[in-house]
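TA notes, week 10

Several of you asked for a full example with nothing omitted. So below is the full record: structure tokens for the whole chain, then the designed sequence directly under it. When grading your own attempts, check the secondary structure regions first.
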């Protein structure tokens, strides 16, 4: 079910690589397909890759400190996101930036033998720790690991029921594209959850805010609200883990939300929401406005109806001459 992250074409599988229709090759090393694309990544992604190359081995030892700082239980806090995913046994789930698999194990436990869990990350070093952990445990769903960039996904359109990411979004080189890709691979009616660090704006001038942002500058990142896709429905945002991490959950709709913008709005002005938006033509002078107001008042039509008829009749007459 993998496709090319470069041109979305189907892949042909060779002995130790996949190849797309343009000849792009994606190597399979130590059993892990490497779909990382583009070949030249933005600085923030290169820095992430470098950081995890040097720190992957210590990640699981030091990560619990984040939860201890706020006196909260990691299982309970992560459980809030997993509950919000509303998983069902046969779901196909994608976790982007799964790291060493701390949420992945919780997701895998919720899925049955018809479920599928695709785990991906951009860092080879950290993903290998996840692979190693999973190799020692037995889970019911089919589980596949791959190296890939979270905003160039190597997956077919509409494949997943759930898409999940926690902890890396702030530094993704293209956050808007990441959301577009999540929506592309998720079925309409599916659900997406993303989260990362964020010091709420009302705490940024407090001692709590300043001290924590000094130690971990990632708390300074803004919420990615302007990047949310138009397909996002039932959007919920909450902070957890001491109130300095957020997660956003939403259901995936089709296109823009629908509204009735074509009913006649009662009152003097009249028109519909649509005609008020699209119906602008050149302005007229003040004297004409006053005359039009009087004429409208005389026959009791809304200004929209009167104007529409007056302009239409004048235009038809002109065109007939
Ligand atoms: C803080 S760790 C979180 C790991 C895991 N989700 C967790 O909660 O423990 C951030 C992860 O995002 C990954 N990451 C960073 N940039 C990425 C990108 N562009 N695409 C995919 N993964 C990325 C990192 O390699 C790292 O494993």
């Amino acid at each position: 079910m993998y496709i090319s992250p470069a041109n979305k074409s189907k892949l042909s599988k060779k002995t130790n690589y996949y190849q797309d229709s343009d000849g792009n090759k994606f190597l399979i090393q130590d059993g892990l397909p490497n779909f990382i694309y583009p070949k030249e990544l933005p600085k923030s992604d290169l820095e992430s890759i470098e950081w995890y190359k040097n720190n992957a081995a210590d990640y699981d030892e030091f990560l619990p400190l984040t939860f201890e700082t706020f006196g909260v239980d990691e299982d309970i806090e992560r459980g809030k996101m997993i509950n919000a995913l509303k998983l069902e046994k046969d779901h196909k789930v994608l976790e982007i930036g799964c790291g060493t698999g701390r949420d992945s194990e919780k997701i895998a436990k919720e899925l049955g033998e018809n479920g599928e869990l695709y785990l991906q990350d951009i860092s080879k070093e950290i993903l290998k720790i996840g692979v190693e952990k999973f190799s020692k445990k037995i889970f019911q769903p089919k589980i596949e690991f791959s190296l890939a960039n979270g905003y160039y996904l190597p997956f077919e359109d509409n494949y997943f029921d759930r898409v999940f990411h926690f902890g890396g979004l702030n530094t993704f080189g293209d956050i808007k594209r990441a959301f577009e890709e999540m929506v592309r691979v998720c079925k309409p009616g599916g659900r997406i959850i993303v989260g990362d660090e964020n010091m709420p704006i009302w705490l940024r001038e407090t001692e709590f805010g300043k001290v924590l942002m000094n130690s971990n500058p990632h708390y300074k990142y803004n919420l990615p609200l302007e990047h949310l896709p138009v397909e996002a429905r039932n959007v919920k945002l909450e902070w957890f883990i001491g109130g300095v991490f957020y997660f956003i959950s939403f259901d995936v709709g089709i296109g823009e939300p629908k509204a009735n913008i074509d009913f006649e709005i009662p009152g003097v002005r009249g028109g519909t929401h649509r005609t008020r938006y699209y119906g602008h033509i050149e302005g007229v002078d003040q004297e004409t406005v006053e005359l039009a107001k009087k004429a409208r008042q005389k026959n009791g039509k809304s200004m929209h109806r009167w104007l529409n008829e007056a302009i239409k009749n004048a235009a038809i007459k002109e065109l007939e001459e």
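Residues 12-252 form a domain with the Rossmann fold fold (CATH 3.40.50.150). Use that as a sanity check on your answer.
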